[in-house]
Recover the amino acids of this structure.
């Protein structure tokens, strides 16, 4: 970033805390200081937003300036001499923080943000002074329902205006504003208006304190009890990078993870609720012919069905890949069905198109359409073809990877072998059901609409008889004597990178087990 | 079958009662001497349930001794990496569990050095630490002497001394709220002031303890049975002290006058007048005598400390280190945040490493701590004094009789909680 000046850019020399550094002209001083390891606190500045310089926490001394200067609002200049930690600067920041704390309610024990709160953090890291005021605090509105997903507490607000800028600059929907002045200044919506834009929950993420809280997450877990796992949102083809926050093997919320090439710092509200489905309506046990059987029996039954039909009427056997499944699952299915069993009728499954916008949301509601399209050999039939083939009786046996929303009649003569995550009409009509893991339970990868292969990490363990899709497929391959030789998702990935051009050069990366937020770098 | 086999059988049948025909017994042939493994412990009353000494004996004589520890491993060092700096105090209580205050103090001093607030600790807190620490040292030595005597059959002494130990523990209970697991010390001071009216009680108990010690002394020091088993047994050479890393009464019994309180004074020990008793031969009796003398020195320290202790705060006035008062916590946001962060995140210790050591009950108790700036240590290693002190037994025991293991091991005063951690 700031430390890598590209050739044509003009660079400037800046002296930061006695050491000289080079930066490209126009670099933000706060970012420049951060990039060389100088620690500066801030509330209102955010790397993805404009700088209003209202919190006065990032003040630094610049030689020649009559008073401390907000570094977030200053660009570097040649021969600038900056001191980020002079006694004067530290004292001024402390005094500004004292003003901020003056009317702050004593809410930490009941505040949802406690534990990941910037105000707590900066006070503890930079201040530590005792209170000097004796008077009553100014009281403002509490528990104000300002939007579909959001509750506002005006007392806790430190007036940094980050949320206002998120609405203006990211969501392009100016819903929030400041009203009144001085110690009576409050954050509010226009009369009769609500904070209902599709990116509203980003205001909760950027809020340095607990003024804006998510109705969904509110009071469900304390922040420090959560474990964080990096992953990718499965909501659409954009593939926003997210952190999955879990506790006691349940997902409690999704928050965006910085990736400047994909989603920057943001994600849509819809994506945040993708986690709910992981815990709802799941297929946990294997079944065959409508009865609960062991996983092994189900595998045996599936193999028998396939064997019979492949020997008698090979053209009536089909396989359905899924744009909802990971590259690994689709690749394992490719190896089993196309390479191993030589099935000719290949279908591509996935959710139908939905709404989109120009910010992040894609119309394609599948996270891995690109991966599927580039992986499966033509001719690829669509789900519409599948429906007509099922109706006309072209098919006798079909292997379906994870697509539960597919419309099938409740009683169909076709033998459906379904590797399912969720219950649905497809599972009800299936001859054999093998329970497989959902996106948050597996290590794997999705390929987003730009062809970017992105890693998922398992945030919660599989329950019941659930196994990752690639493993179920490897086990099924074992029934035909064709071992795929996978022991981990990484093996499948490695094989896939050898075979598919679009995955060439992609690396699996190090393992990233859940980190407790209490001990990991606190989000505050 | 060889030809002379029946003959041998015949010769063995010839047993003469009353007078034996010596010429019949060939020592090498009929009673071959073979060394025998003998496991002392871990379930042996004199092994305190926490150690096994694998002996190789020839008759009653010890040929080799292998000290096997690990029966009380509590994962202290790993647990410490998952607890905030303050949450580690209860774990230190359980290191040397007969003198928990000394462990509390040792750990607190290490963290304070890392925080660079050593010189900000209020003087009263330092005196309180000396007082509770020296009481703990007395209880530590009393336990060692009492158990050591009991294991040699002197049960009366055990009762006298354990009774005295109980009086002292009751005093510490009054100070900390817990008889044994005090968790009384905090980073920056101690958790509460001494209770009102406590110092006179201490002086009273010290007088009673003196009587108990005098009784025990009369029963032991000139007791032939006791002296026969202690004198000249388990001699540790002065030259071995440095090589084996011996400290505390074990080192001092050999004549090495190393005491952290004197050689590297901490707290207010340099302002108190006391002596370091040393032995001469390094045998079990010297260790007994050193401990006995040290108890009287600790009493001297206590009396001086009680006379000199100033009024004032008992913990530093920095709410980023010590918890703010509840009144402030509930009424000001500043103290609320500080309280919250101290409890949830732990105090922020700047990145760095430190080896800090104090005089524990058994010798040099060291803490090697590495911080990476988080609210918990990145590494918290303990240098337990009795780990080194115990190891030397592998050199000392060979040549002694099996019965000598008991007093020799007893005078080392190995405490499993500290040795194994």
């Amino acid at each position: 970033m700031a430390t890598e000046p590209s050739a044509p850019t003009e660079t400037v020399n800046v002296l930061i805390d006695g050491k000289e550094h080079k930066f490209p002209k126009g670099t933000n001083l706060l970012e420049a200081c951060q990039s060389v390891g100088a620690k500066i606190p801030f509330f209102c500045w955010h790397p993805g937003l404009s700088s209003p310089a209202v919190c006065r926490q990032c003040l630094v001394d610049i030689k020649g300036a009559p008073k401390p200067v907000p570094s977030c609002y200053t660009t570097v200049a040649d021969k600038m001499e900056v001191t980020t930690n002079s006694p004067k600067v530290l004292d001024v920041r402390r005094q500004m923080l004292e003003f901020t704390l003056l009317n702050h309610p004593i809410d930490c024990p009941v505040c949802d943000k406690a534990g990941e709160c910037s105000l707590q953090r900066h006070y503890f890291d930079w201040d530590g002074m005792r209170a000097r005021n004796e008077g009553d605090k100014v009281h403002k509105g509490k528990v104000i329902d300002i939007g579909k997903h959001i509750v506002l507490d005006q007392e806790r607000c430190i007036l940094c205006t980050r949320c206002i800028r998120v609405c203006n600059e990211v969501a392009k929907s100016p819903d929030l504003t400041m009203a009144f002045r001085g110690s009576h200044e409050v954050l509010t919506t226009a009369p009769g208006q609500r904070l209902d834009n599709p990116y509203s929950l980003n205001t909760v993420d950027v809020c340095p304190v607990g003024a804006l809280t998510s109705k969904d997450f509110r009071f469900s877990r304390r922040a420090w009890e959560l474990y964080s796992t990096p992953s990718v949102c499965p909501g659409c083809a954009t593939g926003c990078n997210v952190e999955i926050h879990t506790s006691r093997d349940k997902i409690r919320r999704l928050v965006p993870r910085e990736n400047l090439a994909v989603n920057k710092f943001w994600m849509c509200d819809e994506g945040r609720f993708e986690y709910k489905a992981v815990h709802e309506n799941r297929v946990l046990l294997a079944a065959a012919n409508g009865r609960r059987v062991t996983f092994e029996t189900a595998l045996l039954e599936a193999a028998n069905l396939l064997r019979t039909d492949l020997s008698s009427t090979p053209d009536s056997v089909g396989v359905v890949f899924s744009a909802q499944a990971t590259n690994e699952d689709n690749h394992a299915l490719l190896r089993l069905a196309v390479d191993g069993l030589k099935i000719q009728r290949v279908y591509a499954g996935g959710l139908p198109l939905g709404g989109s916008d120009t910010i992040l949301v894609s119309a394609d509601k599948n996270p891995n359409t690109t991966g599927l399209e580039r992986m499966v050999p033509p001719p690829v039939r669509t789900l519409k073809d599948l429906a007509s083939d099922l109706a006309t009786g072209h098919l006798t046996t079909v292997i379906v990877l994870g697509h539960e929303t597919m419309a099938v009649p409740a009683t169909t003569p076709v033998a459906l072998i379904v590797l399912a995550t969720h219950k649905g009409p497809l599972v009800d009509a299936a001859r054999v059901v093998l329970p497989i893991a959902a996106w948050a339970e597996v290590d794997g990868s999705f390929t987003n609409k730009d062809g970017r292969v992105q890693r998922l990490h398992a945030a919660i363990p599989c329950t019941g008889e659930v196994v990752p899709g690639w493993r179920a497929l490897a086990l099924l391959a074992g029934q035909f004597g064709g071992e795929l030789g996978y022991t981990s998702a990484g093996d499948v990935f490695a094989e896939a990178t050898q075979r598919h051009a679009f995955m060439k050069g992609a690396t699996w990366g190090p393992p990233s087990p859940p980190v407790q937020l209490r001990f990991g770098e606190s989000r505050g | 079958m060889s030809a002379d086999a029946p003959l041998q059988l015949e010769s063995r049948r010839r047993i003469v009662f009353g007078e034996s025909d010596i010429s019949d017994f060939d020592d090498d042939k009929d009673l071959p001497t073979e060394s025998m493994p003998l496991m002392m412990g871990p379930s042996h009353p004199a092994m305190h349930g926490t150690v096994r000494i694998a002996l190789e004996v020839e008759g009653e004589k010890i040929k080799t001794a292998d000290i096997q520890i690990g029966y009380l491993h509590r994962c202290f060092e790993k647990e410490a990496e998952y607890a905030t700096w303050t949450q580690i105090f209860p774990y230190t209580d359980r290191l040397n569990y007969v003198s928990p205050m000394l462990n509390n103090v040792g750990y607190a001093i290490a963290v304070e050095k890392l925080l660079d607030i050593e010189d900000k600790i209020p003087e009263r807190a330092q005196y309180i630490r000396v007082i509770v620490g020296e009481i703990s040292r007395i209880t530590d030595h009393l336990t060692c002497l009492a158990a050591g005597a009991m294991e040699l059959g002197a049960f009366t002494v055990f009762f006298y001394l354990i009774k005295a130990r109980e009086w002292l523990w009751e005093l510490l209970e009054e100070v900390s709220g817990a008889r044994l697991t005090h968790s009384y010390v905090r980073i920056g001071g101690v958790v509460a002031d001494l209770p009102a009216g406590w110092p006179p009680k201490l002086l009273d108990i010290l007088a009673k303890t003196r009587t108990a010690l005098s009784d025990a002394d009369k029963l032991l020091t000139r007791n032939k049975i006791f002296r026969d088993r202690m004198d000249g047994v388990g001699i540790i050479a002065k030259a071995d002290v440095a090589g084996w890393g011996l400290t505390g009464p074990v080192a001092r019994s050999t004549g090495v006058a190393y005491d952290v309180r004197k050689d590297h004074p901490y707290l207010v020990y340099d302002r108190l007048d006391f002596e370091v008793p040393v032995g001469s031969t390094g045998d079990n009796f010297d260790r007994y005598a050193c401990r006995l003398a040290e108890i009287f020195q600790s009493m001297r320290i206590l009396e001086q400390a009680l006379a000199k202790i100033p009024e004032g705060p008992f913990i530093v006035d920095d709410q980023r280190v010590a918890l703010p008062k509840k009144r402030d916590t509930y009424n000001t946001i500043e103290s609320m945040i500080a309280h919250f962060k101290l409890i949830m995140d732990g105090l922020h210790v700047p990145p760095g490493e430190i080896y800090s050591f104090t005089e524990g009950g058994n010798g040099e108790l060291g803490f090697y701590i590495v911080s990476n700036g988080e609210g918990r240590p990145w590494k918290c290693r303990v240098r337990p004094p009795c780990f080194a002190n115990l190891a030397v037994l592998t050199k000392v025991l060979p040549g002694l009789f099996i019965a000598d293991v008991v007093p020799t091991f007893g005078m080392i005063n190995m405490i499993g909680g500290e040795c194994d951690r």
Remarks:
- Residues 1-13 of chain B have pLDDT under 50 and may be disordered.
- The two ends of chain B are 59 Å apart (CA to CA).
- Residues 123-151 of chain B form the longest helix (29 residues).
